[in-house]
TrEMBL record:
Residues 53-509 form the Aldehyde dehydrogenase domain. Its EC number is 1.2.1.-. InterPro entries: Ald_DH/histidinol_DH, Ald_DH_C, Ald_DH_CS_GLU, Ald_DH_N, Aldehyde_DH_dom. It comes from Serratia odorifera DSM 4582. Keywords: Oxidoreductase. It is an enzyme of class 1 (oxidoreductase). This is Aldehyde dehydrogenase (NAD) family protein. SUPFAM superfamilies: ALDH-like. Belongs to the aldehyde dehydrogenase family.
Length: 513
């Protein structure tokens, strides 16, 4: 491998965030925020070629800007830039400690950048308070975690015949293509870029065309932190035009994707027919919340359940959207859930007092409406919600909704709705509860609520899901715990050392002496 070793930016201690010291001053005027132009390639913003896409603000449905799409030629340019940069800059073969220092510094810049927070709040469904207190620290910490991984995981030495030495030598792939969804633009980008960069790869990332802006700022901060220009590039555009060109590019050696199961299947097939490259697929879910009679204090359980299906307006892959509750606790729990659901209020994401997320766009709001209407027509009983907060206003805020008596074939029970809708099913014994928890397509997560250790462990074993949360619902900030689905919910893991190791390929070496 040739190329110079990049000159690392000296690692300095950055003082704590001054911008966000006063957390009572977070509100901002969305029209005052400059939107980054188009793509980010070779350390520069590029307004780009190709036809434009309208990008709307989820909170009020107003046009934020036109997005130039990268066509196959521009994707080719970005991938070639990345391929050259990763070797010529020395990023792939410098000391892992040097990479770690750059990533640590990047995390510091992320955590104190007001512009990044505003771009995320303006362009996505995340209220500014939530962005500053959760999304940004979560993003920065994921990158710190992978900085720490850079020199922690080695290869292997095998017990071979006497006069030979067998080894497994990890090396970076080169260029990794990353594709992210709109529901958590920053943290999803950090889950892809953190491990890939720490392992010595370059990345070309395509964010969702619905939430393009904050990711460009993220890449700009990486270069400010000392990442060599060209090692992280952002290309904008639709999945059909830009995403598929990225997956098919011969110099993209691995694809890391988060999004819907349908798109994941397409990407797996495109990757198979364009170089047989490995894919990591983090896909959709329809996760059960299994509540037993002995779940403990009803209020606390209800709060967990409500957080689990309303976070980000229900637009979370992990949303726990199927309540499966044992008869003895059902009435008390449902009454408490209905009361809690009535406490939500809509509010634009740039207002510091807002805490409830809008739907990403009109299409998503309509999809939720259609599924709720279909459930109603099939005899489903709407216990609370069932409509938008303001059917005529701009922005698409959906009321938290509970539906009982859903038929087994109802789309409300079968499909990933991606809205704040919880179906309710009641069971009598454990075996029936576990049978209801199974889903024919998805296996992303499950919540189990019981104070019986034995029952909890039986349920954990009995549910086919990549993550089982017992007496909690949702991730912690423990990035060592990987995440990923079974069946139609995906292949491979994000987070944990598994994601780092999946960003390297392993060469078997045998030496005779
Ligand atoms: P989506 O599949 O529509 O799009 C995801 C990304 O793929 C976007 O950037 C899109 O432009 C791109 N894309 C679309 N078609 C493509 C193609 N043919 N080739 C290449 N790229 C293509 O998903 P979405 O609506 O943006 O996000 C919501 C989905 O993401 C939900 O299903 C949700 O469960 C899932 N998700 C999963 C996880 C997880 O960790 N498992 C996390 C977040 C979101």
């Amino acid at each position: 491998m040739s190329g110079r070793i990049f000159t690392p930016v000296p690692y300095t201690i950055i003082p704590p965030a001054d911008k966000f010291k006063d957390l009572t001053m977070l509100s901002f005027d969305p029209d005052s925020v400059d939107l980054p132009a188009g793509h980010y390639i070779n350390g520069r913003q590029l307004s780009g070629k190709g036809s434009g896409l309208a990008v709307k603000r989820p909170s009020d449905g107003r046009l934020a800007g036109e997005l130039a799409q990268a066509d196959a030629a521009l994707v080719d340019e970005a991938v070639n830039v990345a391929d050259r940069a990763v070797t010529e800059s020395g990023w792939s073969h410098c000391s892992p400690r040097q990479r770690a220092a750059v990533l640590m510094r990047w995390a510091e810049l992320i955590q104190r950048d007001q512009r990044l927070a505003q771009l995320e709040a303006l362009g996505s469904t995340r209220p500014i308070h939530d962005v500053v207190n959760h999304e940004i620290p979560f993003t920065a910490d994921a990158i710190r975690f992978y900085a720490e991984c850079a020199d922690k995981y080695s290869g292997d030495v095998f017990p071979t015949q006497d006069a030979s030495l067998g080894m497994l030598v990890p090396e970076p792939y080169g260029v990794i293509g990353a594709i992210t969804p709109w529901n958590f633009p920053l943290s999803m980008a950090s889950w892809k870029c953190g491990p890939a960069l720490a392992a010595g790869n370059a990345v070309v990332l395509k964010p969702s065309e619905l939430t393009p802006y904050s990711t460009v700022r993220l890449a700009e901060l990486a270069v400010q932190a000392g990442l060599p220009a060209g090692v992280l590039n952002i290309v904008q555009g639709s999945g059909a035009l830009t995403g598929s060109a990225l997956v098919a590019h011969p110099l993209v050696r691995k694809v890391s994707f988060t999004g819907s199961t349908q798109t994941g299947a397409r990407i797996m097939s495109d990757a198979a027919f364009n170089g047989m490259k490995p894919v990591t697929l983090e896909l959709g879910g329809k996760s059960p919340q299994l509540v037993f009679d002995d779940a403990g204090e009803v209020n606390r359980v209800a709060e967990r359940i409500v957080r689990g299906f309303t976070a980000n307006g229900g637009q979370a892959c992990v949303a726990g959207t199927r309540l499966i509750v044992q008869r003895g606790i059902a009435d008390a729990l449902i009454a408490r859930l209905v009361a809690l659901c009535q406490g939500f209020r809509p509010g634009v994401t740039w207002d510091q007092n807002s805490s409830y997320a809008p739907m990403i766009d009109a299409r998503q709001a309509d999809k939720v409406q259609q599924i709720v209407n279909a459930a109603r027509q099939q005899g489903g009983e709407i216990l609370v919600g069932g409509q938008r907060f303001d059917a005529t206003g701009d922005g698409y805020f959906w009321q938290p909704t509970l539906i009982a008596n859903v038929t087994t074939d109802s789309p409300a029970l079968q499909e990933e709705i991606f809205g704040p809708v919880l179906t309710v099913q009641i069971f009598d014994d454990e075996a029936e509860g576990l049978a209801l928890a199974a889903h024919p397509t998805y296996g992303l997560c499950a919540g189990v609520h019981t104070l019986s250790l034995e029952r909890a462990l039986r349920a954990m074993r009995g549910i086919a899901a990549g993550t089982v949360w017992i007496n909690r619902y949702g991730r912690s900030g423990d990035f060592i715990i990987p995440t990923g689905g079974f069946h139609g919910s995906g292949i491979g893991k994000d987070l944990g050392r598994q994601a780092f190791e999946a960003c390297r390929r392993y060469k078997s070496v045998l030496i005779d002496f």
